[in-house]
Amino acid sequence: MVRKGLKSTRQRDVILDFFLSSRRHMSVEELYRKLRARHPGIGYATLCRTMKLFAQSGIARDIRFEDGQTRYEHRVEGEHHDHLVCTGCGAIAEFENKTIEDLQKAVAESHGFIIHSHRLDLYGSCAKCCEKASASGLKTGVMNIK
To answer: Domain 1-77 is of which CATH architecture?
Structure first.
């Protein structure tokens, strides 16, 4: 935290440890519910301010998916990943795919464009939601992209 230019406080240290130990993309509300169970002295406003500071300093990345809710994920310098987002249950999976990255670079180059950053979120149904839909007789199809 100090390397990122932030003052280290007991509450920030607790929030940082908790945030970094989580592998999920969580909203402030989710973080607060889980954090409060172990550390009831940390307030909601403190958590909000701290997560914004973490995002501004590069420790975290704030992401808003289709549902409009801001979630936070770890930010590691030089690391990139994309997201699979289930529209049924809200599950979010991270993935890396060199072929997709190479294709994006090639498309940009063919248009004389230099990519500074990008974000790819693919929305669909996770395996569990597909199983539930199939068991209840609902059709789950694959979107045809042309």
So the answer is: Orthogonal Bundle (1.10)
